[in-house]
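@channel anyone free to eyeball this complex?
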Amino acid sequence: MLVQALIKPNTYFDSVSLMSLSTKANQIEEVEQAIIAMGTEMNKEVMKNVGLLTPEVEVAGASDLIIVVKAATDELCETAFKKINELFTKKNSGKKGTNDIKYSTISSAAGSNPEANLAIIAVNGAYAAREAKKALENDLHVMMFSDNVSIEDEIELKRFAHEKGLFMMGPDCGTAIIGNTALCFANAVRKGNIGIVGASGTGSQEVSVRIHEFGFGISQLIGTGGRDLKEEVGGIMMLDGIQALEDDEETKVIVVISKPPAPSVEEKVLAKIKTCKKPVVVWFVGGNEEKIIAAGAHFAKMSKEAALKAVLLAGADESKLNKRALNIPLIEEVRTKLTSEQKYVRGLFSGGTLADEAMHAAMEKFDNVYSNIQRNPEYRLKDRYTSQEHTFIDFGDDEYTQGKPHPMIDPSTRLARFVQEAKDPSVGAIVMDFVIGYGAHEDPVGAFLPAIIEAKQQAEQEGRHLEIIGYVLGTELDPQNYQEQIDKLLAAGVTHASSMQNAGLLAREFVVKGE
Amino acid sequence: MSRISDLFKSKPHVINVGIESFKDDLLQQGAEVIHLEWTPPGRGNPALIAALDKFESPELMEKIEAANRLAVERIINSQPVLIGYDQAINCVPGMTKTTILHAGPPITWDKMNGPMKGAVTGAIVFEGLAKDVEEAAKLAASGEITFSPCHEHNCVGSMAGVTSASMFMHIVENKTYGNIAYTNLSEQLAKILRMGANDQSVIDRLIWMRDVFGPILRDAMKLNPNGIDLRLMLSQALHMGDECHNRNVAGTTLLIQALTPYILQTDYTIEQKKEVFDFVASSDYFSGPTWMAMAKCALDAAHGIENSTIVTTMARNGVEFGIRVSGMPGNTWFTGPAQKVIGPMFAGYKPEDSGLDIGDSAITETYGFGGFAMATAPAIVALVGGTVEDAIGFSTRMKEITTTENSNITIPLLDFMGLPTGIDVRKVIQTGIMPVINTAIAHKDAGIGMIGAGITYPPVEAFEKAMLALSENIQ
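replying in thread with the prediction:
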């Protein structure tokens, strides 16, 4: 081993920097041992103790910088000195600093940023209510993405928000578009004059996307939370949302979306709508037309219909709209391909309202429609892993998402079920949604493609036609490539439906026998 | 509905809590987003969350806030003044010839770590109670020595904190509230008693400090009737680039400058006076203990305020880290295991040589300087990761867990932000952010001394225990 010293006369570095440099110097490959220090008596003693004292070091003064290196050869010493010199000149410019102030609580972030106006809460449900309360206390509107929030907490938060004149959107409906900005799960749609208040996440997404496709746009989309129209909550946010859109100058038409509300809440909401000065389109999935008409609102049975009515009220020229009617010849063609055994539809959905809409379409023609979200317990799936006759599954339901992300992000559960359904010889058509937009999977179709191709081939080998209907919920403005998603489906032999409504209707029609 | 129409008319400015990809989506759309560094409060422990919730009831909140306002007011308004130096036996309450004070919460001889045992045996030899360290170890184990935390005697001690009867102490008086705090003299750096070294050179230095250095300082201060205003001096030192825990260059210069006229007037020989100046100049650390006594003096004035959740002590004995909280009066300690200190080390030493975090010096962070004031000391940013941004980050981050800013002592680089002051147990539990401490590293074995310096944090357990106790106590 060789010990070499380099003395830099009258070169001052403070002891902490030198410790840091020494630590780095000792990590240099060629270095057996290195010390970088000022030539104080104390440091020279340390060097003596570890056998690194050279004659040059011995005579160095307290204001001289000493670099001592122990290495195997002269050459390695030279290389080490070179690398150590680099350490002195290297600046930390590339390193990411902590220049951005970091905040750990809503109060501190809001306190230091008075222009903040909205909080998105997407933490574990056990903590979500606490954080939402903090946000409201700090005069922030809240978008509560978290699920597993108790209904008691929801009521308390919404009452508090209402008192303060704030929005408390969610939980369990992670969709909103505020000021043309998509929050959580939402699509990039044109700004326009149609406002949406929705207690259903994908239902609201679907209507916003259809409105966009018809050439119109959204002023605001307020996601009220899936339980808002339950008896206990009493539609607090729905009522505030309608009022807000009525007051909003940009909004010309209001669309109200929900699963059927509790009767007392329905009464309140319809009473509110009755006094509303702006036209209101109501789509309550499976809702009652008479009551809605009686409230002076426009009734929509399905999603595309809701969007269509809204754009017409907003001033669309019906003759110029492409309504994308159902493809009747295609229905005929598929029917002939399916055997008499292939009687059933299996709907595998990532979006709850999309599942609901397709299910309701099927229920109009069939009475043996089963689902995990059926309101009639008689038709609720006995076993969530096994389909019965016509089956529609919402994979976003809590029972499928325990410990997993939402199926719009993590396709694995739905994918496994698809493989299973594709093998069932009684299945005529499988219908699926592929949701893109903010918050969603970067390539939802791509995640299914290998399984779809394999299933089709397998069915063919077994001598049956497997009809798969795919619907891509999204717009050409979404961060994913909308057209590419559709192209992938078409290339795999999937029937592409132009809307959720059409997807549900096609699936139903394909398996109808003997009409 | 005006808040809603405001929302509709302006672009969303979002505080995002939880899923980080929502932040990216919002940024992509041109919205303003602050993504919180959020962790479950109280690490998700239901008892701690219940305690936080309990304290948020309007009635308790008001009580606690009022108590904490009083506590931080006392910290900020304290005016600690160095009024003299004397031997511990003459001034420290409860001191006896066989008492050894140590850093941190209470600990018995058998549980002490290497550096503390090294310091204790060295001190016993220094006091003439044993002829060598072997005999001293036997005496220490015999039960004839009274071990007690510095903090329980109005003292603080850096590193092992070992303080014995004849050692000279700073005497610091709180001119606002009247209480007094003590700490011993700096032995300067490296192979020294407080770092666990105890060979003859260490003992010889202690003897010189007892016979020459201490008496000169004592007699010098007798000539200074007004004392030295340490809060003012601390403020100056921070403006000169010290953070006054690990960097004491400016503070030491200011302090010796203030002492010099009086030292010169004492009756000691020129040679002895020169020895004093040479000793002070041999290291930047001379004023290090002085700031600790200053902080202790202010924080003691804030201790014992009913309903207050403000931390008044953070101290470590090398095995356990202990805190005291204002609303839990007296010597109620909440402890957790002492942590490793991470940072640059002297050549030849490796992280596995380090003893665990030790010393009462975290009193500086409890007051609001040291690690909390890293932004004042760009010269030693290597301690905290190497960049000035990192140093600034440490200082701004501490505002999340403190109650107010100390307008008397400011950080120029942060637009003269006052020191983050009054660590609040509730905020620590709520955010999961631990107070940052920058400190020296002692070798884990007795007899070796300082081997580096770096950053450490208290164990969260100490704060969790304090939170639960406060929750019982505040009704």
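from a first look: Chain B touches chain A through 74 residues (CB under 8 Å).
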